[in-house]
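User: My instructor asked us to take a sequence, write out its structure as tokens, and then describe one feature of it. I'm not sure where to start. Here is the sequence I was given:
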Amino acid sequence: MNQFNFPRSILWTTTAAILASAASGAIAQDTIRIGEINSYKAQPAFLEPYRRGWEMAQDEINASGGVLGKKLEVVARDDNGNPGDSVRVAEELMARERVALLFGGFLSNTGLALTDYARQHKVFFLAAEPLTDKIVWQNGNKYTYRLRPSTYMLVASVVKEAARLKKKRWAIVYPNYEYGQSAVASFKTLMKQAQPDVEFVAEQATPLGKIDAGAVTQALADAKPDAIFNALFAADLGKFVREGNTRGLFENVEVVSLLTGEPEYLDPLKNEAPQNWIVTGYPWYAINTPEHKKFVDAYRKKFNDYPRNGSLVGYSALMSIAAGIRKAGSTDADKLAAAFSGLKVDTPVAPIVYRAQDHQSTLGAFVGRTGVKDGKGIMTSFSYVDGASLQLPDAEVRKLRPAD
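Assistant: Let's start with the prediction itself. The structure tokens for your sequence are:
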């Protein structure tokens, strides 16, 4: 046999590999690959709508010609709600998938892990959902920006309403990890400023996803509060509401609850949804601006379903990334970080700006009361609070945030 006369099977395998490699290279030249990391299995109520949101944005962007003449391709990975896995997946996306940048995150602890990864490896990261203030303050860095209102901003959006209640004895319940701890610290500080005579008479810190609702509600009831501040969400919130209803915890007691107006958490309660709580949320069914109506109509047409808050966040996150790449004219991390400073983006609910001083967007919050209509929880008498009005003074931000 001639030394160059290889068996056909080897030739076919080699040829296929060469063609696949060439095709991969061609695709890479025509696309911008973007890594997305999230806790899909751990938090499906929020993150499945969120995935749909960025999928819709990706389709719209690509249908209109893409960005810089290239199509966007999101490569998504699950981090199991674990900070260590978040970093491992980030490394895999950068090294193996050759993504140009990262976005995503849900839990505050995974968001902080990705924030630190971005700093160490000089990778651009847009934190879509993680709420902890540390992402843009104590742990802030050149390469990290954040879309959602921070924990401080969400608390600030409800404190004015809380102070108007003129209730002195407050009980507090929250998930015992970064987001909950941050929310409670901000609530105590801002309430003391707004109402110096306020007292905090009970505090229940529950393991995330493992609330003992009976014991928690009984402990709060025993303290005989005039009002309750609640930062629970997802399954913990549902258990707390149902147990509180059963035990009469909420009778003649005002409740301020950070995330309860989000459809992801309000809808599953159906006619058990709490009534007259002060909440932040997303009343998609009653926002009648042309921009929002266009978003809802497109979402319903594509998915045969209505949007949740996650849908809005996912959509706005990828639209922000597209706008940033256009402004930068590149996916280079340093150029993209510079382009995001002062970047203006139109979202379905309001125009926003990514602030130069702390990399926080000015996306705001809908604040209102809860109610029940047709056997389903809703937000009533709500208003949109612009995120620009919910920020600390720049001098305070400079004290909290390290220099880039």
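For the description part of your assignment, you could build on this observation: Residues 21 and 301 are 37 Å apart (CA to CA). Try explaining in your own words what that tells you about the chain.
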